[in-house]
């Protein structure tokens, strides 16, 4: 239970339902014995499912569900149906963005209720096995993969695959997400050859959707490199990791450049919060891999630490920015050329100046 949700606990005290209820639990579809005391149109098998749903999505959509679920009579007329449909589409967008943010933040358990709400609303509005369901399937698959629950993840991915296979005009963005999820599942199952192929498809579609130089595409390279590392193909994994690290280094340097040159006149560069967990995880994985090599490439380690320092500076975490910056400087000074020392030094000065003022 997270502290920020504590005050809300009083709002979510449930009401007991009569014993012979036909109502179903919002989360597990089991027989419900409780109802939400706020909206009174949402039901649960027990308090733990109610709490999980509240934290995951219900808190944000509780009042919005009332018109959708109580307009049975009015909703059957033409006008009422259209109005209801608009409300449902709004809810789909809300549930999807909340669940996506939770996945991006690494809160996979909390992403499930939003993903499920999104899926059942999509089925309701668009019908079963339609292309509109694919984002919801993939969202749930990503959450299950994050939790290491491979069989529900596989189920969601195969549903998505089936729909996509019947939709030849499915766009590159969706294809990229499908192949990435598939590759992740195959990696987790140890099917490394299949995983490489899926990530190659993922990169192809990501390049079409976002461009070859995009960070989305580069993350695909990182995922393939992981597969090589897991297969024990250290040489190729290492060279791919290095390329990924260099791309990110130039990306972050470019973001920081105007501010480094003129901190008074330029706005503090911001880093997409949704990507923070993913990028941090990627840089740390590469760093860990390089630090475990018998002959270490110190300039590369310095470059990775410099990336982490820049990222945390932009994220507003001065302690981490300084910590990684200092390690980056020490490591850079171990290599004869010390290519990055000057850049790291100015970043560290900036960290001190910015956060002491
Ligand atoms: Zn339940
Ligand atoms: Zn409610």
Annotate the secondary structure layout.
Layout: E1 15-16, E2 34-35, E3 43-44, H1 47-70, H2 72-75, H3 78-104, H4 108-126, H5 134-146, H6 150-165, H7 172-189, H8 192-210, H9 215-230, H10 234-261, H11 273-291, H12 298-314, H13 318-332, H14 341-356
Antiparallel strand pairs: 1-2, 2-3
Helix pairs in contact: 1-3, 1-4, 3-4, 3-5, 4-5, 5-6, 5-7, 6-7, 7-8, 8-9, 9-10, 10-11, 10-12, 11-12, 12-13, 13-14
The structure holds zinc ion (2 copies).
One zinc ion is lined by residues 36, 38-39, 42, 58, 62.
Q: TL;DR?
A:
By secondary structure, the chain is mainly alpha-helical.
Name a few traits of the molecule.
357 residues; 3 strands; disordered N terminus; 70% helix; mainly alpha; 14 helices; three-stranded antiparallel β-sheet
